[in-house]
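We modelled the chain as a single entity of 200 amino acids. Its sequence is:
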Amino acid sequence: MNEELYHTIAQPVVTEFKDRGSRFIAYAYPIASVEEFKEKLKLLKDEHPKAVHHCFAYRLGTDGNTYRVSDDGEPSGSAGRPILGQIDSRQLSNVLVVVVRYFGGTLLGVPGLINAYKTATTLALQTTPIVQKQIEVNYRLHFDYTRMNDVMIIVKQYNCTVVKQEQNLFCDVEIAVPKNRLEEVLFKLGEMHTVETRKL
């Protein structure tokens, strides 16, 4: 796997798969954190209070260690794992898929459920474009507001992303730095002396 790039989905998407009366609505989202996952799941539970299951899987980061699956009451291994399997088969990261199920009155059995969750996820991931993104490392910068322009020039020059910023007497800016430009960015910021950098 490329050390500096990863693949994710370009935008959120919703697709639906039906099997013997049951509806499986798949929501795929690009996400960057566990907090974002929790927000999305809560919104879907609020949006679909009558659904019998909200099964999901996500994978975050590029080391492959941050993931979670949930069968949400379906037989063990029949929902979350098949969803994650589809995310992994496309080698995607920073992706959440939630499949909302409305029961149609006919039991599908474990093989039927595995197929339904897998198919719903596949449809969603086929519908949204896959994009290649740079692996980024987050840093917090602390500096006197008079250096704002100088700092922002470096941020733009090296394609860093501003995650959040607070401005009082001093500025606190969280940036995501492309991994392959990290040394250059830290060197440039270090040259300013008055800019404190802290890895998050």
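As a brief sanity check on the tokenised model: The chain has a mean pLDDT of 93. Residues 109-127 form the longest helix (19 residues).
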